[in-house]
């Protein structure tokens, strides 16, 4: 009982003692002797906000031959299909193989585009004249739009042909020779939308 009463008295004494200045040591009376002195730490100071740039997480998925890629960055999604999968050489008519690829794209549009406008951009390689490539890329983008319009009715599309602009790979090798693999990557149709 004696210890409990002493502890209570000590608690009351500390509670009723005026607060010292932040830099002055605190003196606490101790039973039977000198007061104990403890330093007081000044914990006041400027409060800082932690902030930083919020970055979107991007992901890119492709099949093994990279003829179809699905790239997401934040709310933006782009499905890129190699023109060689969709069209015969130098043509703007969809092939039989194109149907399954476009069906997959249509399912994504129905699930994620939610009425948002969808862009379809056609591209070619650098072979041929610029005006011919521009026309071919536009016709190919329109063919994709027509197919997707049937598979995902009610979706609004904006179609643009870019020809040989914005290549994703070199059309020529460093020595100036032809780069068939690079040209194949540049022949593509991109389907883009905001999720």
From TrEMBL:
<keyword id="KW-0998">Cell outer membrane</keyword>
<dbReference type="Pfam" id="PF00691">
    <property type="entry name" value="OmpA"/>
</dbReference>
<dbReference type="InterPro" id="IPR006664">
    <property type="entry name" value="OMP_bac"/>
</dbReference>
<keyword id="KW-0472">Membrane</keyword>
<dbReference type="GO" id="GO:0009279">
    <property type="term" value="C:cell outer membrane"/>
</dbReference>
<protein>
    <submittedName>
        <fullName>OmpA family protein</fullName>
    </submittedName>
</protein>
<keyword id="KW-0732">Signal</keyword>
<dbReference type="InterPro" id="IPR050330">
    <property type="entry name" value="Bact_OuterMem_StrucFunc"/>
</dbReference>
<feature type="signal peptide">
    <location>
        <begin position="1"/>
        <end position="23"/>
    </location>
</feature>
<dbReference type="InterPro" id="IPR036737">
    <property type="entry name" value="OmpA-like_sf"/>
</dbReference>
<dbReference type="InterPro" id="IPR006665">
    <property type="entry name" value="OmpA-like"/>
</dbReference>
<feature type="domain" description="OmpA-like">
    <location>
        <begin position="74"/>
        <end position="195"/>
    </location>
</feature>
<feature type="region of interest" description="Disordered">
    <location>
        <begin position="155"/>
        <end position="195"/>
    </location>
</feature>
């Amino acid at each position: 009982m004696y210890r409990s009463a002493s502890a209570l008295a000590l608690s009351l004494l500390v509670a009723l003692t005026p607060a010292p200045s932040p830099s002055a040591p605190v003196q606490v009376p101790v039973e039977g002797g000198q007061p104990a002195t403890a330093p007081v730490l000044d914990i006041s100071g400027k409060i800082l906000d932690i902030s930083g740039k919020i970055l979107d997480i991007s992901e890119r998925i492709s099949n093994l031959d990279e003829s179809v890629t699905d790239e997401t960055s934040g709310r933006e999604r782009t499905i890129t299909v190699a023109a060689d999968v969709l069209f015969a050489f130098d043509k703007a008519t969809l092939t039989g193989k194109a149907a399954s690829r476009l069906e997959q794209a249509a399912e994504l549009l129905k699930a994620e585009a939610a009425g948002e406008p969808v862009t379809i951009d056609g591209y070619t390689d650098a072979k041929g004249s610029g005006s011919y490539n521009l026309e071919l890329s536009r016709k190919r983008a329109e063919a994709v739009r027509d197919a997707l319009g049937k598979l995902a009715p009610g979706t609004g599309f904006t179609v643009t042909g870019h020809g040989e602009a914005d290549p994703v790979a070199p059309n020529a090798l460093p020595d100036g020779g032809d780069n068939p693999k690079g040209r194949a990557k540049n022949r593509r149709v991109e389907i883009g939308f905001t999720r």
